[in-house]
Amino acid sequence: MAFLLLSVTVLHLITLAMLFIATMEKSWWVWGDVENSDLWHKCIFDNATGTWLCASATENEWLQTVQALMVLSVVLSSISFLVFLGQLFTMSKGGLFYFTGLCQILAGLAAFAGALIYTFQRKEILQDSRELALGNFGYCFILAWVCVPLLLCSGVLYVHLRKRA
C-alpha cells in the first residue's frame, strides 16, 4: 500500500511539473530554430545578438480561452495535491480521496479542452504569424497532451485509493 501511495504521489508531482512547463514555456508552435509561439509570447531568434526577442502574443478569444484552461488545470492540480496532503494526515482510516481525485480529473479535462482548442483553432490563434505550413507543434503542446491521460489516470487512482493507516 505504501508503494501505491508513493507511486500516486510521484505521478502527481511529475504531471504537475509537466503541466506547469507546458503552460509557461515558449514552444507551442515552432518555425524551425528561429521562431516560436506559445500561450503568452511570440519569439524570434536574433542571430546578431544570439538572443531571443519576445513580444506579447496577439490576444484573441481562442488564445485567452486556452490560456485560462491551462492555468485552471495547473491550479486544480495544485489544489488537488495540497488537499491530498491534508487528507493524508487528517482523514480517518478507510477514507477515500474523492475530492483529490475529482480535482485531478477536472484538471485533466481542462488541459484536454485547452489542447483541443489550440489544435483546431491554431490558425485563428496564430493569425498574424508566418505561414503555418512551415511550422509544427512544439514540445509544450505535446507535453500538454501527455498530461491529459496522466491527470485522468491519477484522478481515477485517487478516487479508488483508500487510506490504510
Describe the protein in words.
The model has no long low-confidence stretch (mean pLDDT 87). The chain is built from 4 helices and 5 strands; from the N terminus they run H-E-E-E-E-H-H-E-H. It has helices spanning 2-24, 61-90, 98-125, 139-160; strands at 29-31, 35-37, 41-46, 51-56, 136-137. It is an alpha+beta fold. It has a single domain (2-28, 59-160), classed as Up-down Bundle (Butyryl-CoA Dehydrogenase, subunit A, domain 3), CATH 1.20.140.150. The chain is elongated, with a radius of gyration of 19 Å. Strands 4-3-2-1-5 form a 5-stranded antiparallel β-sheet. It is found in: Membrane. InterPro entries: EMP_3, PMP-22/EMP/MP20-like, PMP22/EMP/MP20/Claudin, PMP22_EMP_MP20. Keywords: Membrane, Signal, Transmembrane, Transmembrane helix.
Helix share of residues?
55-70%
The CATH class designation is Mainly Alpha
CATH topology: Butyryl-CoA Dehydrogenase, subunit A, domain 3
Q: Structural class of the secondary structure composition? A: alpha+beta
Radius of gyration: 19 Å
Note the main sheet.
5 strands, antiparallel
Q: Tell me the overall shape.
A: elongated
The low-confidence parts are: none
Tell me how many strands there are. 5
Average pLDDT figure: 87
Strand content: 5-15%
Distance between the termini: 10 Å
Looking at the overall shape, the CATH architecture is Up-down Bundle
In short:
This protein is of the alpha+beta class and 165 residues long. Helix content is 62%, strand content 12%.
Can you tag this structure with a few keywords?
elongated; 4 helices; Butyryl-CoA Dehydrogenase, subunit A, domain 3; 165 residues; 12% strand; alpha+beta
